[in-house]
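Tokens for DNA endonuclease activator Ctp1 C-terminal domain-containing protein. Go.
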Amino acid sequence: MTTPTGPQGPDTDVSIALHHLAAAQEALQRVRAREVGPETTLLDAYRRLQHDYHELRAQYEKDQQAWRQFKRWWKRRLTEKRERKAKQARTSSPLTSPSKRVLVSPRKSRERILEHRRQVRSMMQEHPSMFKGLGRYATDSTDRPAKTRHHDTPATTHAPDCACCHAYYQAVGRAATTPTTTLTSSSRHRTSDVHDPTPPDYWYVGFPSSTQEAEDEM
């Protein structure tokens, strides 16, 4: 960069300042282009990777420090909780403390169950009304369903005439065909159709008795 020479004056100072400002702008543009532009040499690429590595390493160490602080806080909380439980167990009564419970042997458990059953049986003999209707099959006869209608008895339903269904049947009307024929031919409860007779010798299974042999001879 060359500095203009000549007689000094206000105009000369302004021109020099403008010249320096233009040179600074050019240098700044070159620096920006070098930073933003792609790495042209292997050394620039290595420096860029090294810079990124240092940034990631710093972030990793920061996260590790935060994790160590959380672990210390969590361990401190667990220690306080265990100490509080131990103190509560020491100060509580032996009957309510879980650590002071008495273990019962299987034999003692069976004896207690048998004693309870004997007490229940004695109460059933003394006060049978207390256990009335509590058995497995103790049900009231009124709760049982009604007897099934016989297949020859016509159905007497109140649906077409009841108040809740009258409007529906009045709007829908009677069906043109009834499924009676289809039901009679396919249902397992059919009674009008006559079964076809069995073919000859259908029940003859190949083991004739002495009576059949005698009839054949006759």
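Helices lie at 10-36, 42-91, 106-126, 166-172, 180-186, 210-217.
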